[in-house]
Amino acid sequence: MTLNLDADFLQRRPANHRPLTPLNFLLRAADVFPDRVAIIHGQERRTWRQYAHRCRQLASALMRSGIRRGEAVAILAPNTPAMLEAHFGVPMAGALLNTLNIRLDAAAIAFILTHCEAKVFLVDKEFSGVARAALAQMETKPLVIDIEDALGEGGERIGQYTYEEFIQQGRTEDPIYWPEDEFEAITLNYTSGTTGNPKGVLYHHRGAYLIALGQLLHHKMDADSVYLWTLPMFHCNGWCFSWAVAAVGGTHVCLRKVVADQIFEAIETHGVTHLCGAPTVLGMLIDSAAGAGRTLTRPVAVMTAGAAPPAAVLKETEALGFRVRHVYGSTELHSVTTLCDWHREWDHLPPDERSRKMARQGVRTAVTDAMIVADPITLEPVPHNGAAIGEVMFRGSIGMKGYLKNPAATEEAFAGGWYHTGDLAVVHEDGYIEIKDRSKDIIISGGENISSIEIEDVLFKHPAVSYAAVIAMKNERWGERPCAFVELKPGFAGGVTEKELLEFCRAALAKFKVPDRVILGPIERTATGKVQKFKLRQLVQDSEQNT
Amino acid sequence: MTLNLDADFLQRRPANHRPLTPLNFLLRAADVFPDRVAIIHGQERRTWRQYAHRCRQLASALMRSGIRRGEAVAILAPNTPAMLEAHFGVPMAGALLNTLNIRLDAAAIAFILTHCEAKVFLVDKEFSGVARAALAQMETKPLVIDIEDALGEGGERIGQYTYEEFIQQGRTEDPIYWPEDEFEAITLNYTSGTTGNPKGVLYHHRGAYLIALGQLLHHKMDADSVYLWTLPMFHCNGWCFSWAVAAVGGTHVCLRKVVADQIFEAIETHGVTHLCGAPTVLGMLIDSAAGAGRTLTRPVAVMTAGAAPPAAVLKETEALGFRVRHVYGSTELHSVTTLCDWHREWDHLPPDERSRKMARQGVRTAVTDAMIVADPITLEPVPHNGAAIGEVMFRGSIGMKGYLKNPAATEEAFAGGWYHTGDLAVVHEDGYIEIKDRSKDIIISGGENISSIEIEDVLFKHPAVSYAAVIAMKNERWGERPCAFVELKPGFAGGVTEKELLEFCRAALAKFKVPDRVILGPIERTATGKVQKFKLRQLVQDSEQNT
User: How many domains does chain B have?
Assistant: First the structure.
């Protein structure tokens, strides 16, 4: 005889089981901190009461306009109050929020809007040109709404309403939608699509809620935190900070453009405590500060990811007064799933060693159930020796629902019961992982693996180098050989030659890892600071054919 | 046509859905901080690796001894390493952890062990006397295991094994149990039972996980946090800090006895950053510090609840260097569900006003879905005017599964889809709640409600008063009238009369609220610092009959 713990009266019921959803965070912030500033945007200030009020207006206006549960509402906007409102207002209507990368071209926007059958399209006027061109390519057009942001510059009206006209149609007393199941979709994030068409990643309420709590926990945020929007909100919903800040009742500081002067000004004016950004953002801050002789008056916590930040960048950013935390994740995992959780014993290491510790992607967060670095086929984990390379894989409640309308890609991503990131890493003896490459970016030369990141790290240490990207180029004898693209810092162009950089690599790398070529010039990056290596590979291939 | 977001390939699967469980916190801490101190107990130190290792040993030993999923393992012990191990080791065996109040008498222990059909009973040797007496009253006896704690004093061996002998039978390579469903029971906590037999509250993995994250978030804990065990772990699993500390890889400091000298010593020796305690613990710290002229060298965060702490106690504790946060909850809600979330604007209020703000139970936490203060029958919420009284009710994932073997009490507790706390509160204009009484402790005099807490608050302000408890006594003319029990501070006994205390009340209270009687003498409290008012009512009734 055992206890009956599964008796009917011990099952889930409304009093002891409600869906986990970030929507609750906004309602709580409006209850607890109604008069505290929730959003700063230029001269504008919105309290949590006002913010929640406007989200309810948006939700009601959407429902009254005929939007039904699970239909997509797309938005093309920089990090503005309207973008923050969409993160709550759209799911409060039961709709699916699709945030579009503002750097996409018309064809890509048209593809996405058509793929997700968007019923409403919110467009910041700055982007009305590309939006109009996209709409012209579409057969079925959504309802278009113009966001006229006070700090926006130029742009035509292309919509049936302005955003303000539209939300005035909403009634805050209308009931809001509440998910019946926490696994319901909340947002739709298209991957940048380094190959083929973009894939639409479906986020669920449960994952968004858990990642938001994890971010707050690991980055020590509270009601006094002031979060600056240097990370695009269209990227993984701003690593879920779009929702997380509400859970503690902190303050959002919007930012239309990621420009160093504006970042430093916002930090000092608004007492910014936290921001996120790709290593390129860190690089920009360093360059700007070096020119202006700046340091911060108070420390600012910075979460960085996107690519492994080179040790040199990490070190300089810390010297400025930023406290850097290295995090890692992917769009398919609701953003951040590992961090280089810091050991206080490391505080006293020499700067270079500290940077090496910090450059690692680290360990799973408190809300990430499980991570392995393993053979992608056999799922056999690699030894913790800092040398053996395997694919980084995750499982747990932070995994996406799947790719919209794409069962084949979904099954492939989840093969063997784990989400396959496509990133290759080693595991150090202390269990911390370090990404060595994207699986498709590894260079196989004479049967040996060469990590493009290792070569990039060396190049970044050269004082003249502002950015570096290394790719594989075809070679008859070795199969593949490394080729480095290098962007020089302003003032150094012309002063440093390819030969000098190759010498610099020879002094630091095993001979077989030294690139065969160095190509100087600007390197194109995506909105999230990622290099699209397939484009560089194409460039090299074209240039080889021309010679 | 709408998007198919419910397609088969978008449903839950192991890669994107795993049960939320605090067990994951321990595995992560052992991975991330293997060599960091997890537990301090006297001279003993255990790292997270060692802690996790011993929990796995315990789990394996339980399974090898024949424990099956859902069977109860009871423990009678103070805040020791074995108690911390039981919090992970028992659920890792799939068993149900039942922590027993160490102040219970043999009859109550026998009742509980019989009621939950305990298969294993872990007993700290200090409590072997009462345990043996309890076992003598039971027909079916569990396997008894003696915990021989290095800091324990005396006590006979009554078990088949010592705890160390028992866990040596376990193998850490044995697989551990993992819940299939996060709503499975994890622990069983018996309420102190102010009326009738104790009720067994079933906690689930999901609730324990969420409350643990909420505690960390609101009390700003991280890997550098050092948590001192002044709150009994048998009380709501130590407000879920037994699990929460693992989620950040902080440090537990055990404490067998809550004695002021040992608390102050532990704080200074181990750099304690956080502790919890009933207002009586705060009172003890104040009394001790006043005698020894102590203050803290570093601030310590203190979470207090159990009863509304009088303003005077809060003020003095802050002056010592403790940063007090007032929290509230109940056993049926996995512990803490509200806190007096602090507004930085309040920092600059005069001390008395700050204390009044802080004495409120406040607002729901970030992980508490919904709270209302309402009419218990109609569920109509009371206006936010600081005067209208309603019952505090909660709903959401923090609610218990229910009461073991007690469907009637479960249905009553969850009537109307809300958990009824039995506490009466007002809601202030800013939405913060303030408990005025237990529903059964309110005094109804001539049709007017008199809050026993309001009178107690006044009495606590008298410099000679160490503790006060006010109850209703029957009165022919008015129905009920207040009667105050007062315990004086050491040194004041005999120096203050009932009459003086009544005069003191008259100066501060409306005439009808002034007690008819003041009774001087020691006041009996439970292990968690609660007064059992039904016993005081009985005392008065008996004394009235004798006069």
Answer: 3
